[in-house]
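Extended Data, record Mitochondrial carrier domain-containing protein
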Amino acid sequence: DNRTVVAASCAAVTSVFCGFPFDSVKTRMQTHNYRSLTDCVRKTYRVEGVRGFFRAGIAPPLLTVSVLRATSFSVYERAKSSLYRLHGSSDVTLLSLGAIAFVAGGASGTAVAALSCPFELVKIQRQLQVLVWERQQRLVDPRSQPTWASVKEIVRLRGPLGLFYGLQSHLVRDLAGTGTYFAGYECIKRVLASIEGGNGRTSSGVHFLAGGLAGVFCWMLTFPLDLVKSLIQKDVTAVARHAPNGWQVARDIVRRSGFRGLYTGISVTLIRAFPIHALNFTVYEYVTERIQLFATPSNTPTLASMEAD
């Protein structure tokens, strides 16, 4: 559906612009030792300046995230429609809605994982390059290197399949995370809509609050999976090293730092999560509705008005 592609792409552009610096700080805190969020921000700014928060470059994520977000939402909407048809009944309980959204979201996450893995892998390498350069005292300053140089380095060390380093952990995170994300949004939106009342349409305020809460809820549940994935993928350029088992990485974290260690870097993630995901769904729902209104002749009732009737 072209409406889904356009709406999801618009939401992706908004999310990338607002969330990229937070994502960079999150990756640094997950993979290197900082005393606090403030310590990470201060040291990054002192050594690299403002550009340090945009180390991977914002142009590649704008393109790739738009494609991935459009694919994710398209797969989700198609899977959700199919599951609704299988369900049969027009009366969908909140529990059934959550189950349908989780399965459809899981399908979406699974479909997108193989596409997003290389992009996230390169992004992590770019975000951490200056730290690695300083600690290993390499000769070439990575700040002078383009993103393509990171891709070539990974392929040189591990071959083309090296771009999928850590795919298993990536797949687990995306399956669980995307399922939780969409299920949380759909359920919270229904609850808020019932409180709001109205004529069958949900307001932008509902979309904003439901999206923000769903983002926070999703990250609180799946952050350890993202941490393990980041720790695995940061070592892609370590010579002659195979990707470690995710369970082993998690056990090592718990042994060294306790269960709190599984949430290293979550502070900046939660600060980022609410506004980014609130904007994501608000923009997505708004653009979808606008496109539908423009595409529907004025004398033809819209889907929202038919639902209200």
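Summary. The domain at 2-294 is CATH 1.50.40.10 (Mitochondrial carrier fold).
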